[in-house]
Amino acid sequence: MGKHHQNLLNNLEELRKRAGLTQQELSEAAEVSRKSINAIENGIYVPSTVLALKIAKTLKCEIKDIFKLP
Amino acid sequence: MTYFKRFLIVFICGIVQIFYALYLLLNQFGFNLAWHIDNHIFMFIPGVLVFVGSGILTASYYLGDSKNNNILYDEYTALRYYKIAAAGYALNGIGIFMLFSIQDWANWSFQNANDMIYQLAAFAWLTFGALLTIFSIGDYKEYKNG
């Protein structure tokens, strides 16, 4: 797991890079701003369920692959 | 709507509010300013700006390009706004308590009541003006660098 949030660990940056996407491309696919993706990757922001599902769908993985409870 | 246009709208509204609120507060607390706003019509400027600015933003939210709006009005921006608004309510609560505390209740009059209403309005105006300015700068900086 990469960057840490108090309530949620995430692996987003690694999975995004593995999928060959930039933050901008992922944000467009998930219909949010690039800064939201950046904030999630850096553990600043915990996304909503809908956004987490959109990200997982874009990266073709499960939510549990991206996020994990500490 | 773009990030830059939103920054401009919110920043100008915030800065103008700060200017007018400070002017009103300084007058209320007896500081002798070297100049005065003579025409009372000018006091409508911040209100008109906020009315027009919020109208433009609301119209862009409901009528603008949905793909663009998903980015401009996403949940992270909403969270940022909620935090700023919560800080505003807290600061206003403290400010109202302080302004109530410094009134001369023993010699209360309609003039005192009138002054207090102006003080409360100016303080709330100043608080939200400052928060709007902070929000606009932070939002735009995050868009550029975040």
Describe the structure in your own words.
The complex is a heterodimer of chains A (70) and B (146). Chain A is mainly α and 70 residues long. Chain A has helices spanning 12-18, 23-30, 34-41, 49-58, 63-66, and strands at residues 9-10, 67-68. The longest helix of chain A is centred in the last third of the chain and has 10 residues, at 49-58. Chain A is globular, with a radius of gyration of 10 Å. The termini of chain A are close together. The mean pLDDT of chain A is 88. With 146 residues, chain B is an all-alpha fold. Chain B has one domain (3-145). Chain B has helices at residues 3-28, 45-63, 66-72, 75-101, 110-145. In chain B, α1 (3-28) packs antiparallel against α2 (45-63), α1 (3-28) packs antiparallel against α5 (110-145) and α4 (75-101) runs antiparallel to α5. The two termini of chain B are 20 Å apart. The chains are: A mainly alpha (70), B mainly alpha (146). At the A-B interface, α3 of A face α3 and α4 of B.
